[in-house]
Amino acid sequence: MTEDRVVLHLRPYVPRRRHQDLVRALLAAQLGCSRDELVLARTSRGKPYVQAPAGPGLRFSLTHCPGLLAVAVGGPRELGVDAEPAAQQPDPDAFGRFMTLDERREAARCGAEALVPWWVRKEAVLKAVGAGLWADPRDWPVPVGGNGRLHFAVGRSGAVHRVRDLRYGPYVLAVACAGPANFSVQMRDR
């Protein structure tokens, strides 16, 4: 798989045990190995990764929400994915504790309908960073408005991630890749 392409596998959500089997099957097929040869591990912050077989730097991220399982596969850059139902009614006050002052100002200007896409961008970046919500989400500001675009997220440390907005039926999704380089996403729903 080339550095600038991410394959996003989309499936109806299945129980956790079955989605683990599905993820293993997808990754084994991508690596050209059997499920038994595939060894998955987690970082100290819980980010899953392929421990064996050693190979071309395959990276993956997964997310699930009511009705959907999404697995992003790419490499060698770190990546993250998140999804939420677009019709979700967010509580602006609840999200406020995860926002920088600039994000709160932008949210006030854009309105509540911009919060769900903002949140999936934020979570995708935090997953790509490898910290999830162990990190302070305010250290990774992301744009609130501008749905349907490719964005930059620059952390307080200066690290850069690219974030792409996606739509799949009633869901909003975001895929983030480490680094400033552009990338494409190929969605597969079977």
From TrEMBL:
Top-level taxon of origin: Bacteria
InterPro entries membership: 4-PPantetheinyl_Trfase_dom, 4-PPantetheinyl_Trfase_dom_sf, P-Pant_transferase_sf
One Gene Ontology molecular-function label: holo-[acyl-carrier-protein] synthase activity
Pfam families recorded: ACPS (PF01648)
Keyword line: Transferase
Domain 4'-phosphopantetheinyl transferase: from-to ranges: 79-175
GO BP term, pick one: lysine biosynthetic process via aminoadipic acid
Gene3D superfamilies: 4'-phosphopantetheinyl transferase domain
Signal peptide positions (record): none
Assigned GO CC terms: cytosol
Keyword hit for ATP-binding: no
Family that this chain belongs to: Belongs to the P-Pant transferase superfamily. Gsp/Sfp/HetI/AcpT family.
Name listed for the protein in its UniProt record: 4'-phosphopantetheinyl transferase superfamily protein
Organism annotation: Streptomyces mesophilus
Taxonomic path: Bacteria, Bacillati, Actinomycetota, Actinomycetes, Kitasatosporales
